[in-house]
Amino acid sequence: MTGSEHSASGRPPRTGVALSAALALCALPLAVRADAPSDAPAIVAAFPSFAHVPRVDLVEKPSPLEPLRAIEGRIREELGIPAAKAPWLLVKHDDVASGLVGGNKARKLEYLLGEAKAKRVKAVVTSGRLGTNHGLASVAAARELGMPATVILGPQPVTDAIRRKLLAMHAAGAEMRFHSTVVGWAVDVALYKLTALLFPDELYYIPPSGTSDVGSIGYANAFFELLAQTGDEGLPDEIVVAASTGGTAAGLLAGMCLAGRWEQVRVRAVGVTDEWLQSEWLLRHEAQEVFRAVRDALDPADRARVKECDFMDNRSVLTYEHGYLAPGYGKTDERVEGVMRLLRAAEGVELDPTFTAKAMRHFLDRARERLLAGDTRRPLLFWNTYAPLDVETAIRGHRWKDPAAPWRELPPEMQALFEPPKAERRSAAAAIVTR
C-alpha cells in the first residue's frame, strides 16, 4: 500500500479537450485519451478531469480476468454439449489481497479513505457483522494512513474463523464495540454517524461494506477496467456478483452508464443478505447516486459527454436474484460447501460461504440454463469479490500479553465469544472429575 493521493495538481494535460469532447458527441460514446498516467484509475482515460478525485492506492490493478475452463468443461460434459474453441465462462479476480486489505472492500476503501485523508480527519469509524471483512480491511488500511479506527460490530453466528478475525482486528489496532442485538447495534451506529455529521473534522464514517456514493465509485471505475481488458468484442453480456449492501453491483451499473455501454451488459446481483436490509429498489437508487457523484466530479467538458440512464425502471440492465440466501445470512449448508469444494478443486478459486459461494451457485445455474438454450454468443462473467485476508500473520505479529489466551485483551463483552457453551464446560468438568 503506497498511500499515494491523486489530486488536481496531478491532472493530465488538457490540451484538445474541447475538440475531443466535440468529436465524442458526434462519434463514439467515449473519447479515450492516451495521456492518462499509468497508475491512474481506468476511468481517467475516458474522463481526464476525474483524476482530481481523492484516492489512495490499496491494491494493484487491473485485477486478473481469466477463463473458468475446468468448470465450463464439467458443465458441458454434464449436459452433453460439445466443448467450444473459445472459453465462454470467465472470472474477474478481485480475490486478491495485501495483508488484511483485499477483495471488493479495497476498491471502495480507495475512495473512502482518499476522501477522509483529503479532509484531514482524525479518526474513522465503520460497522458490520462480527465476521466483517470490510471492518478488518478498513482498520488495517486506516492504520497505514495514520488514522485510528473504530468498528461497531453486530451479531452473527460465531465460528472459529470469526474468532480469528476478531483477534486480527484487535492486532490491527481497532477499537471494537460489540452488540449482541441488532437494535443495540443500530443505535450505536446511528450515534456515531451523528457524531461524524456534527464534527466532520474529527470523525469520518465509512458505511457497512463501504457502500456509498463515494465508496462505490471504486466499482464504477472497475467497469472501465473490465472494458479495457475485454474491448467491446469481448465484453460479457452478463455479470454475476454477490449483493449484500449492493455497492459492488451499483458501481458496475453506474460504470456501464458512464462508459456508454448501457443495455449492453446485464448485472445479475445475487442477494446474500436479509431482504429487509437490501432490495432491488435500493440497489438501483445506489447506482443512480454513484453515477451522479462521478458526473458531478467532472469538469464541464467531460460532463458534457455523459448521457443520463434510466436506473430506476430499466429492466434490461439488472436482475436481482432472491433465491440463493438459504440457509441464511452467514450460514452454510452442503450446497454452499459443495460449490466451495468444486471451485477450489477445479480452478483453485477460493470462495466464502457468506457471499461468493452463494453467488457462484447462481452463476453455475445460469451457465447451465444458457448452455441448454444455446445462448453463448458473449461471455458470462463471475466477479469474485472475496479475498482471504492474512489474519494469521496479523495475529502472530502482535505481542499478546497472554499468548495462550489472547482473547482476554478484547473488550469484556467479546471474551465470552471465545468460551465454550456452558453444556460443553459441564461435560469437560465431568470428564475431569471421573478421570
CATH class of the domain at 60-100 and 214-384: Alpha Beta
The averaged pLDDT comes out at 88
Query: Which blocks of ≥5 consecutive residues have pLDDT under 50?
Result: 1-34, 423-435
CATH structural fold name of the domain at 60-100 and 214-384: Rossmann fold
Return the structural class.
Answer: alpha/beta
The CATH architecture of the domain at 60-100 and 214-384: 3-Layer(aba) Sandwich
Please tell me about this protein's structure.
- The structure is a single chain.
- It is built from 15 helices and twelve strands.
- It is 43% helix and 12% strand.
- Helix 2 crosses helix 12, helix 7 (217-234) packs across helix 8 and helix 8 packs across helix 9.
- A hairpin with a 2-residue loop joins strand 3 and strand 4.
- The protein has 435 residues and is an alpha/beta fold.
- The strands form three sheets. Strands 1-2-12-9-10-11 form a six-stranded mixed beta sheet, sandwiched between helices. Strands 7-6-5-8 form a four-stranded parallel beta sheet, with helices on both faces.
- The model is unreliable at 1-34 and 423-435 (pLDDT under 50).
- The protein has helices spanning 17-26, 69-79, 103-118, 133-144, 160-171, 182-198, 217-234, 247-258, 280-297, 300-303, 334-347, 356-373, 391-396, 412-415, 422-434, and strands at residues 65-67, 89-93, 97-98, 101-102, 123-129, 149-154, 175-178, 203-206, 238-243, 266-271, 318-321, 380-384.
- Among the domains are: 60-100 and 214-384, Rossmann fold, CATH 3.40.50.1100; 122-199, 3-Layer(aba) Sandwich (Rossmann fold).
